[in-house]
Design brief:
88 residues; mainly alpha; 0% strand; elongated
């Protein structure tokens, strides 16, 4: 009886309809580009703030902010390969 129950477990294939897959790819591509643009803008803004602070003689925590921006950039750039590794 145990062998009968184990043999009856289905193993469906994961295949999305072509129209849906095309739309999802488009949305994910736009999101990836938006994340890249946000990362570049974050680095530029943080660098500008660092330059202004140095000129004024102020010290602040821009390195931690830059670190957060760079971690975000790494997450955006590796999101696709990580998901493909986990679910692929």
């Amino acid at each position: 009886m145990i062998n009968f129950l184990a043999a009856a477990i289905p193993d469906p294939t994961r295949q999305a309809p072509d129209a849906l897959a095309t739309k999802v790819d488009l949305v994910l591509g736009i999101a990836a580009w938006a994340g890249t643009v946000a990362g570049v803008a974050g680095v530029l803004v943080t660098g500008s703030m660092m330059a202004i602070s140095v000129k004024r003689g102020e010290s602040s925590e821009h390195m931690s902010r830059l670190g957060m921006v760079l971690v975000g950039c790494v997450l955006v750039s590796t999101a696709g390969p990580i998901i493909q590794f986990v679910f692929g």
